[in-house]
Design a protein that fits this description.
9 helices; single chain; elongated; 191 residues; mainly alpha
Length: 191
Amino acid sequence: MGKGRLEAFSDGVLAIIITIMVLELKAPHGTGLDALGPLMPSFLSYVLSFVYVGIYWNNHHHLLHAAKSVSGAVLWANLHLLFWLSLLPFTTAWMGENHFEALPSAVYGFVLLMAALAYYLLQRLIMSTDGPDSLLKKAVGADWKGKLSPVFYAAGILTSFWQHWLAQALYVFVALMWLVPDRRIERAIKH
């Protein structure tokens, strides 16, 4: 299978994930600004998850752009990643509806952790499929963001039972860390 088909399928799934998340947002029952207050947790959860889906979409695009080919193992690893990302609408809604309480925040962090591990597996399988001259392997290098993210997610999961606002801060921090443009793959492709 060509990598274009894999990318198109993944793009479609990510678009559906965002659509489901936005459909979970409810309109206020009033016309004043005070009617928006109770909806803020749901809206903030949506914004954070939208940013995460955007980060995965962007990095997934670069990942596949650097790949030479796609194997059966890569296909399954990609589905594994999409599975965890498909749980974001549920955990986003649960966390927002319950004002970032401990268990919903921990489950949200767990889904983020599993998606990060699934992405790491996908990345490694693409490198393995492409062999010793893997462009992706050269571009990724030490991948400090990829290694630190699961640590922060695990800390967020544990912290959510102690100070759930701190767990949210850790999830936001990781998102901000990934929002800083990472040009490693783009540079490797140009050379």
